[in-house]
Request: fold
Amino acid sequence: MKKLILTLSSIAMLMLSSLTTTAGAWTIGATISSNSLDTAAKEDVDNNGTTDDTKNVSDDFVVGSLFLENTLMGDTAGITFGVDYVPFDADVDKRSITQSSVKGAGDGAATSGTNSVSASVEDHTTYYIQPGVKFGDNSLLYFTYGIITADINGKSTSISHTDINQTKSMDGEKVGVGIKTVKDSGLVLKFDISESSYDSVSFTTDNDTKGTADLDNTAITFSIGKQF
Reply:
């Protein structure tokens, strides 16, 4: 990833030095994206650094976002700096499992029931740079690198510990490729495919069980905006 960042930074610097436009064009618009979110979860029952259970799940969902960006164009290349914000929560489907608890079995307190866990991603913001190569009169083939900030709210119910409702900060990185076209009317159309990788987040219960999740997302997006 560091090599990719260095490569994109070098490309961006070369493009900036070759651009003839002194003032960039601003675009504001909306994006709709089809997402495939993969979650690799692991559980450390006594929080001693060992993994006692693992589970991989996938969730597919569609979400909308708003973006604001500025594009500098030259004769053969262009570069865009922008921010994308998701004003909605993206929910991870609830997962449930039946469990038996032997706590207090000697005095008849043993029980069984259903554990469940769910999560939602909130305040998802991406700051991105998109260096690209111009083709045709008003189109750009670009690469994307972005820095992501978000919150993840984890919820769980269990027969062996108190319920959890915690929110943690989550950072990530995004890479992708796309095509951008600007019509004579100022209408902007974008289509891209991207991969996002997030830092792992952990939640710990009151009985010292630690759950950790690693999230990776693949997105296919279509954006429409107005350049001014």
